[in-house]
Amino acid sequence: MQFSAMRNILPPSYYIIVIEQIEYMVDAQYAPLTATLVRTLTDKLYEKRKAAALDIEKQVRDLLQANHLAELKKLLTVLKGLTAAQNAHARKGGLIGLAAAAIALGKNTADYTSQLIEPVLTCFSDPDSRVRYYACESLYNIVKICRSSALSHFDELFDTLWRLSADTDLNVRSGAELLDRLLKDIVLATNSFEISILMSLVRDRIYSQNSSNRRFVVSWLSAVLTAPELSISVYLPEVLDGLFQMLGDSQPGVRDATEAVLGQFLERLHEQKDGDRAELSDMINVLIVHACAEESALTRMIALIWLNCFLKMHSAGLLQYLSSFLTAVLPCLNDSQLKAKEINTHLMELLSENADIEYDAVIKVLLKHIKHEFRDTRMAVLNWISRMHVTAPAKLFSYMDRVFPVLLSLLSDTCDDVLLLDLQLLSDICEGKNTSGVELQELNLNENILKQLSGISPYLVKFTSSLLAMFRSDKALLNDRGVLIVRQLCILLGSGSIYRCLSVLLLNDSDTGFISQMVALLNGILLTSSELFELRKQLRTLESETCINLFESLYRTWAFQPIALLGLCVLSQNYEHASILVRHLWKVDVTVDVLIEIDRLVQLIESPILSYVRLDLLDARHQRPLTAVLSALLMILPQTDAFNTLHKRIQCIPSIVVHEENEQNQLDAKVDFKPLLQHFLRILEEQQEHGLIDRAQQKYSERMLDKKIQLFLCGAR
C-alpha cells in the first residue's frame, strides 16, 4: 500500500529521469558499446547477433581510424566479459563480437592478438555444444586475420584442437577440423616457426589411447613432414614408440594414417635431408621391442621393414646391435610376408672375421631360439653358429661348453632338415683343430681306451660319447633316427673314425643289452649302406695296420652280438675263424632276436653287396670253412623262408675241393685271432651266466605269482 501511494504522489517526470539514469549506467557499463547494441548482440536469434556484429565491426574501424585506442581496448574488454557471462546467448554474442573486431582490425591485429584469442579459448570448455561450435567459428576468423601473430599462442591452440578432436559433438569436431587445417597452413607458411615447440607438444600426447586424439597427432606429423625445410627427423626417437603403438589402433583410419607417416619418416631418413642424424640406438631398441611383441601383424611387419632399411643404410655399422636384430628376426622367419629372411641373410653376409660384435650376447640369443617351434628359426640358428665357426672359430670355441650340449640335444629334433644341419655343424666342430674347452678325462675313460682313441679329435670323442648316452636314454631316438644319424656321420666324418670311436666307447659301457642293440644297428649299417663301401673294402683287404686295428676294435665290441660277429668275419673273408666261432653257437641262447639276426645275415649273404662271399664258395681256400659256417646257421634256423634260401644255396655248392691243410689263409695271418677268440668266449660265458640268473629270477617270479593267484582264489571262495 505504501509503494502504491508513493507512485501516485511522484510526478511522471521523475520516472523519466530514473529511466535515463539507469540507461546511462548500463551504457557506462558497456561503453563504448551501447546497452541497445549489447542486447541485440546477446539476443537468442542468430540474425540479430550477426547484425550487431556488423555494427561492432563498423565501430571498431571508426575507433581505429580515430586512433581512440583506449576506447578500442575497452570495447574488447566488454566483449571478453560477455564470453564469460552466465547466459549462453551472451557468450555466443561475445564470440561473434570478437570475430567482428578481428575482421575490423585487419592488419592491426598483432597488438591485440591476446585480447582476441584468449577469451575464445576459455569457451571451448563450455558445457553447451553450440557455444563450443561458435567458439570454433570465431577463432577460425580471428586466426585467419592474425595469421603468424596467432602462433604466439600455438601451445594453447594446439592443446585446444587436440581436445576438440575427440569432442562428443559432430559439428564441433567439424568446426575444429577447419580451424586445424588453417593453423597447419599458417605453420607451414611461417619460416620462423620453431618445430621444437610442436614436437614437444606431440611428444607429450603421443601415447594417447583415444583414436581421435591419435589421428590428430598423426595429421600434424604428416603435415610438417611435407615441408623439406623443417628438420624433424632428429625428434623421431622421441615419438617412434608411440607411433608404433598407434599401428595397433582399433580404427583402420588411424592405422593407415600412422603407416603413411612412418613411411614419410623412413623416406626422410633414407634421403638424409635433415642435417642431423637421428639417434640410431634408441630407435633400434624401439623397433626390436615392437618386432618381438605380441602385437598386430602390421606392427611387426613395419618394424622389420624399418630394421631392414636401417641395415641397408648403415650396413656393418649395425653389427654392434646384432643380438638385438636376431632377437627380432629369428622368431619371424617362418612368415614369408615379412622382411625377416632378407634381414637375416644380409646380417650373415656382413659377419666377418674382424666383425665387432658382442659374442656373448649373440650366443645367448641363438641358444634361446635353437629349439624354437618354427623349423626355419631352428635352421637359421644352426646356420649362424656354423657361420661363426667359419669366421671366428677361436671365439666360438670359448663358448663351446654352452653350445655343444645344446647341439647334441638337437639330435632328437623331429625335422630331418634340422637334424642333418645339426650333424653337419657337429661334424665341423669335431673336425676342428681347436680342442680348447674339452678334456677327455671328463669322460671317465681308462688309459687303454684313451690310447686306442689317440689321434681322434677330443670333440669327436665327446660327441660320440654323448650320442651313445642319448641313444641309451632315448630308445625312440635310437630306433627312429639312429640309422640316419650314424650314416650321416659316416659321410661327414669318415666311417672309419666313427666306427672306431663308437666301438671303443661301447666297450667302456656296462649295459650289455645296450651294447648288443648298438652292435646290431652298426652291423646292419656296415653291411648294407652304400656310404660305407670304402670301409667294407678296407675290412676285406686289411692292407694297413690302421685297418687291422680297426677290425680288432670292431671284433671286441661285436663279440657282444655273436651273429653280428659272424657277419663281420664273413664280410672280412675270415671264414676260417668264422668256422671256429660257429662251433660255440650252442652256448648262445637262441631267442627270437637271435633268429631274426640270422635271418638278416642270410638275406645279406644273398644281396649284391656280399656277392663275393657267394663266389668264395667256389674258391678252394674258402669253400670248406665258409660251407661250415652256412651249414651251422642252417642247423640253427627253423624251417622258414630263410632256411629254404640258405638250403638251396648250400645245395648249389659243387664238390668240395680238397687242399693241403698246411696252406694258410693269407688274411688269417694278418690278424692275431687267439686273444680275440678268448675275448669272445669270455663274453659268451658272462652272457650265459647272466642268462641263467635271469631265467632263475624269472622262474622265481612265476612261482611267487602262482602263489599269489592261489591265495587270491582261496580268499575269493
TrEMBL record:
Forms pentamers. Component of the PI(3,5)P2 regulatory complex/PAS complex, at least composed of PIKFYVE, FIG4 and VAC14. VAC14 nucleates the assembly of the complex and serves as a scaffold by pentamerizing into a star-shaped structure, which can bind a single copy each of PIKFYVE and FIG4 and coordinates their activities. Interacts with NOS1. It holds the Pfam family Vac14_Fig4_bd. The gene is Bm4812. Keywords: Membrane, Repeat. This is Protein VAC14 homolog. It comes from Brugia malayi (Filarial nematode worm). SUPFAM superfamilies: ARM repeat. GO terms for biological process: phosphatidylinositol biosynthetic process. One of its GO terms (cellular component) is PAS complex.
